[in-house]
Amino acid sequence: MSKTIFITGASTGLGKATAKLFQGKGWNVIATMRTPEKETELSQLENVTILPLDVTNPDQINETVAKAIELYNIDVVFNNAGYGQSAALEGVSDEQIVKIFDTNVLGTVRVTKAFIPHFREKRSGLFITTTSLAGVVGFPLVSVYNGTKFALEGWSEGLSYELSMFNIGVKTVAPGAIATKFNDNIDNVIHPAYQNLEKKITDVFSGMASAASTAEQIAAVVYQAATDGKDKVHYVAGADVTATVARRDEIGSEEFRKELSKQILG
């Protein structure tokens, strides 16, 4: 019997690449997105069901999850919906802070909570959440985004203990730069007091972009996490993340922070 994966944020980038990869591996795929009526590629594939889902809408989450469970026995939930933000904290409005936490963190928590009874009753299932290099290492001008991704890493680790009692797995996949349209959707806020820093950060991130992974490469790590059967929570995806984490582990987090500060701030 074919397995089934439920994916949030499947309209573009990593979400879409993951949907296509799992479909190609013979899985049933439930691909969710805010505007399913605009989807033209995934809708042409066999064994792919497209459902509407805005992760900031609790009622729609409950409706869509109930519909998915009616259609299939869900094996994996891939929490991928989210967006980025580039801004000095001083320049970010309260509304912008609430919005990104609502999508990146609370949206993931809501979707996960909605599926737990289904997994608990059958005593199996796996949650995988997209985090980021920014959930492993702090960077200037993305402190709020850092906060959302660090939150997901810690939340996932804590959740893994309580759900392990029911044979439910919890994993994270932390990619670095991905060559997708993700950057087109970044909430970019400019504050005049930080313009020099913004230029430096732009140069650093431009250099990282040259080593960006493809969405397909990161999707392969998601597939690995879904199928390797390992009792492991944290996965990194991409050469840039692997090298960065290795360096931090080699010299320690505080020395790494000082080293990164010199590289970025001079």
From TrEMBL:
GO molecular function, one term: oxidoreductase activity
Organism superkingdom: Bacteria
Keywords: Oxidoreductase
One of the Pfam families matching this protein, by short name: adh_short
UniProt keyword Transmembrane helix present: no
Similarity remark: Belongs to the short-chain dehydrogenases/reductases (SDR) family.
This protein's name: Short-chain dehydrogenase/reductase
Organism this protein belongs to: Sphingobacterium athyrii
